[in-house]
Design goal:
Strand content: 15-25%
CATH superfamily: Glutaredoxin
Strand order of the largest sheet: 2-1-3-4
Shape: globular
Mean pLDDT: 86
Number of helices: 5
Structural class: alpha+beta
Distance between the termini: 45 Å
Largest sheet: 4 strands, mixed
Radius of gyration: 14 Å
CATH class: Alpha Beta
CATH architecture: 3-Layer(aba) Sandwich
CATH topology: Glutaredoxin
Number of strands: 4
Length: 135
């Protein structure tokens, strides 16, 4: 039962982030969240991190993109989205799962990064730092 709940939470997280990426094309910051179905940090913290991301992004200033590293097919699909946003080469060097990377949407410069295992307050603070660091 716990495994099913974790899988469901991961799927909801992926759906929320994917919809967010489509809806927020005018965002000042792009957050790439490295996720994998086999990642304990992702599975154990995905639902909580999703709630923090949503709660602290009501203004849509941050566009979220999932970089799904679960398998070859999901990696390819994620690579296509990253390429569309000019972040493919940058993310090829940043493959740690359970990490959110915050980039300036215009310059593609890394502003901040944080693990999803961090506290709600630390994640919210990282998001605020990213907002302030965008051009």
């Amino acid at each position: 039962m716990k495994i099913s709940k974790s899988i469901l939470a991961s799927l909801i997280f992926l759906l929320m982030i994917s919809v967010s990426a489509i809806a927020q094309s005018d965002a000042n910051v792009i957050a790439v969240v490295n996720h994998a179905s086999w990642c304990p940090a992702c599975v154990g913290n995905g639902e909580r991190a999703q709630a923090v991301f949503m709660e602290n992004n009501k203004d849509g200033a941050i566009q979220f993109i999932v970089n799904d590293l679960s398998n070859d097919d999901s990696k390819k699909a994620s690579a296509d989205v990253l390429k569309e946003h000019g972040l493919l080469e940058i993310m090829e060097a940043n493959k740690g799962t359970g990490i959110a990377y915050f980039f300036d949407a215009e310059t593609k410069e890394l502003i901040n990064k944080i693990s999803v295992v961090k506290s709600n307050e630390e994640i919210a603070s990282a998001m605020e730092t990213a907002r302030k660091g965008s051009k």
